[in-house]
Amino acid sequence: MVMTRSHLSDSTLQTLPAGTSIPAYDRGEVISGIVHLGVGAFHRAHQAAYVDDCLAAGETEWGITGVSLRSPDTRDALAPQDGLYTLAIRSSGGEQLRVIGSIGSMLVAPEDPGAVLAALTDPHTRIVTLTITEKAYLRAAGGGLDTAHPDIVHDLANPQMPKTAHGFLTEALARRRAAGTAPFTVLCCDNLPANGATLHRLLTEFAALRDATAGIIGIADHIANQVAFPSSMVDRIVPATTDADRARIATELGVEDAWPVMTEPFCQWVIEDDFPGGRPAWEKFGVTMVRDVGPFEDMKLRLLNGAHSGIAYLGLLSGHATVDRAFADPAIRQFVDALWQEAIPTLPEDAGLDTSAYTAELAERFSNTALAHRTAQIANDGSQKLPQRIIASAIECLEAGTEFVHLTLVVAAWIAACAARGKTLPENHFTDPLDTALTALLSQELPANETVTAVFDLAGFAGDHAERQTLIEIVAVHLVHLRRDGPTLAFAALGI
């Protein structure tokens, strides 16, 4: 006879094994003050955990209403569990289990846009946070709003039934303004350069188009001048959850958890302190509140995320399935050290950044054998990630006259890894928003220089920078090496 376990839920919390951390507050007393767009694993391992700490400290007006803009999967997993899930904090030395209770309800935008707008316009909602990934900001190659995107076109024509974050935020802010309700603060938590300012610009651009389409004036100006968009920097490694993870967690807890989240002990959040409507006391739980998040953001993007991209693409081309295995490869480890030495001089010297301690900590995190962070997961959406992780650093090195050959190898490795799908890599091993055009281009097997030029044009890399051609030529040399003998020859050309 097969025994079935009960699900994790409010009613089973007290049955969990001793040593499992559970919400230290009455969830029935929590009021939703935050709406979060994009309830993926990262949000549940990061912002939701910080908010859980605040709720446990008595700040019960800051519960989270989660919104999925696309798939019902997370809602379907968490709804039977009363929004609860297990956060498994894993290190090479062991695992700590913590049940997070800060997400009170989940909405799926395509099913009921009206319910999402109702949550956003609720006067109790004072902060809207976002982790919708870089591609969901719908930027054109030049960095502005992709006004031709079908979802943008739809939202301009159907403001009451939006599909995009731009449409939901703009309509909600318009309704709040009409009702005399103060605007919420919009807190972007995605890896965009100057993410608050970037979202502010994109949303103002969208609102201006909406004003023009509707023949009215006002919401764009309101967003431009009355709504706060603090920037933030987030950092925590969150591998994709596997069926083996689910089975292990269920065995340890004695109850089923449909979607536990795996993560590392390290967690960082740096936020610009600009919240006119109030905020949780995040600083009591390790969040760094600052006037300017820029230097922290650049350090993370260029040293952690940049190295992650290099490890992912070179790891895939070298046959390494996870970050720890790739980082244990002596050639890749030496490459990462050299990449850091190229990127560090592009960071501001007067911001008090301790890059030596930071890279030492990164090395320890990359070596965490318990995470099993898949290189294919990191490889997704390279066309959206490489501009801020790699291209920006390479351009600054070029302008300063310093070396940047390791940085440019990352771009070539991305191109080579994309071309390897369906050949030495599985066909859909990782994905990119430009896949249709990339696949057509790479299938032509053009000479390296022509390939790189076409990819730069397609992805908008380096824009109209005067030295763009120099970058293309250096990336093309790397691509020749990768095509001829994979990372072995590319590393050898760098003296690795």
Explain this structure.
47% of the residues lie in helices and 11% in strands. With 496 residues, it is α/β, with parallel strands linked by helices. The chain folds into 2 domains: 10-290, NAD(P)-binding Rossmann-like Domain (Rossmann fold, 3-Layer(aba) Sandwich), CATH 3.40.50.720; 294-493, N-(1-d-carboxylethyl)-l-norvaline Dehydrogenase, domain 2. The strands form 3 sheets. Strands 5-2-1-6-7 form a 5-stranded parallel beta sheet, with helices on both faces. Strands 4-3-9 form a 3-stranded mixed beta sheet. Strands 8-10-11 form a 3-stranded mixed beta sheet, covered by helices on one side. A hairpin with a 2-residue loop joins strand 3 (85-91) and strand 4. Helix 6 (165-179) crosses helix 8, helix 17 runs antiparallel to helix 18 and helix 18 crosses helix 19. The protein is globular and about 60 Å long.
With strands numbered from the N-terminus, the spatial order across the biggest sheet is 5-2-1-6-7
Kindly name the structural category: alpha/beta
- CATH superfamily of the largest domain, by name, is NAD(P)-binding Rossmann-like Domain
Low-confidence stretches: none
The share of residues in helices is 40-55%
Task: For this entry, give a set of tags.
alpha/beta; Rossmann fold; N-(1-d-carboxylethyl)-l-norvaline Dehydrogenase, domain 2; 2 domains; five-stranded parallel β-sheet; three-stranded mixed β-sheet; 11 strands; 47% helix; globular
Secondary structure topology:
Layout: E1 32-37, H1 41-45, H2 47-56, E2 63-68, H3 73-78, E3 85-91, E4 94-100, E5 103-108, H4 113-121, E6 127-130, H5 150-157, H6 165-179, E7 185-188, H7 195-214, H8 219-226, E8 232-235, H9 243-253, E9 261-263, E10 268-272, E11 288-290, H10 294-317, H11 323-327, H12 330-343, H13 355-366, H14 375-379, H15 382-400, H16 405-420, H17 435-442, H18 448-459, H19 468-493
Parallel strand pairs: 1-2, 1-6, 2-5, 3-9, 6-7, 10-11
Antiparallel strand pairs: 3-4, 8-10
Helix pairs in contact: 4-6, 6-7, 6-8, 7-8, 10-12, 10-15, 10-16, 15-16, 16-19, 17-18, 18-19
